[in-house]
Amino acid sequence: MLEVSNATKIYGEGPTRVVALDNVSLTVEDGNFIAIMGPSGSGKSTLLNIIGGLDYLTSGEVILDGKRIDGYDENALVGIRRGKIAYVFQQYHLLPSLTALENVLLPLIFAGDGSNEKDAVNILKGVGLEKRADHKPSQLSGGEQQRVAIARAIVNRPNLILADEPTGNMDQKTGNEILELFKRLNEEGRSIVMVTHSPDIAAHAKEIITLQDGRITGRIQRDKKKVTS
Known about the structure:
By secondary structure, the chain is of the alpha/beta class. The chain has helices at residues 44-51, 74-83, 100-110, 117-126, 142-154, 172-187, 199-202, and strands at residues 2-11, 18-28, 33-37, 59-64, 67-68, 85-89, 160-164, 191-195, 207-212, 215-221, 226-228. The chain has a domain at 97-154. The chain has 7 helices and 11 strands.
């Protein structure tokens, strides 16, 4: 469904020049669950932002459902993110003045379907928070806030979920609950690309890709031998 081909991203010039991505190619097939690993500064989040249209390539291509999107302007990319790609961040980014339900409703409102509250309620129920729908973020635990963020991300029924260290602020038990939720969403047919620095978290994915200095240095598929090194 999505292909990144020969992606290169360079920041700055001269002595401040940084190659964040160096000729990276990656395919995200329908129904896959990919974990991207690597140390700080390896290019993990840059690659995720390129996939989601939050950053622009210096060179290379991003092809989604057969269409090249790396040259799209911001308005076109916003439309794609609303309908096909969703983000889940480490910091949740919930609006503190809104309830859980109101936060989940936001993407529907932006898409012109804000009256469809039933969908938002059903999504909250699916992440186990229907009884917390009228609570504001300050009244929720970290794990509950992340589940609200996931509900908000999937309310428009995207095909691809991008997650940047989604369990980074959680204890192990809460983090495992979030990972189980991701696995269930994947079993329901959604593709997931998740950035993490933890091998234990990456082990929940179907495929693990390792980045180092902006290059792919390893690719492992579950129950299969290492593909590249």
